[in-house]
Fold:
Amino acid sequence: MIFETLLLALGFVICMILGANNASACFGANVGARFFRYSVIAGSAVLGVFLGVILEGAKLSRAIHHGVLAESNISVVWIIIVVALVVMVIATVFHVPLSLSESMIGSAVGAGLGFGAIINWRFTLTVFASWMINPFFAAFLAIAIYRLMMHLSSSVKNVMMLSNLYGRISLFLSFYVAYVLGANTVGLLNGMYAPLIGASQLTPLLFGSGTAIGIYFLSREITESVGRRIVGLSPTAAFVAQLSGALTVHLFTQFGLPVSITQALIGGIFGAGLSKRIRLINKRMIRRIIAGWCLAPAIGALISYAITLLI
Structure:
């Protein structure tokens, strides 16, 4: 009971870090476009995360157990959770949007190799492929949506009314992106605990609360990294970036594939920027983000594998 309680506490902390790190991408575009106050946007995202993990989080429950790993035990769970926590703390300290999904999958592979567990390489390679496809699919989808929106909005003569409409719809999209985050990333974490404590509504509520705290109280600085320091967004571009990213991750969720919401949102921002021929203004930040995407699963795998050698 003590070990289970401690594991739940660690999961709660990870979700707080997730809220401060990755979940900020849910409304980074809105912050960049200056639609609403930070508190209003964050509040909509909090509600979205709760509903996402409760309604669709189960779709990711088998991504690690009976997904990457044929079987697991409490030692494997401990390693995955601890390594994921360490990686997320490092990412947050350096203010780099990083994928919890990638670090957890990498940790699962490393722990599986270290313990000699059976790894489902077909599924694992499918997950790796989805990571590569994710930002590019979001970017291409953003280009298509942007062109469609330009065609539809060309008939609207009142520019101020159109801008206000995009702002209000984008507030809903912040909710939708957070909903997808809850269903995919928080759902992946929640699935880690099912074999240990059984199916329960406690963990979705607990982890949803942790993510909500991170979103509302801890995410401002990294939100600005995503929303303002990468590219200046118009109302239309912000709308397109959020919608394309959310649709991309929601699609992968239906197939039980854990992907990064940050990758999808930034892919959407790139696509929207390319459509408007916006010049990226912080290439250094872009390089840091891409490096984080590449290093997260590798570091997770190496650390978890090293821990198994010490046990």
In short: The mean pLDDT is 81. The two ends are 22 Å apart (CA to CA). The chain has one domain: 2-310.
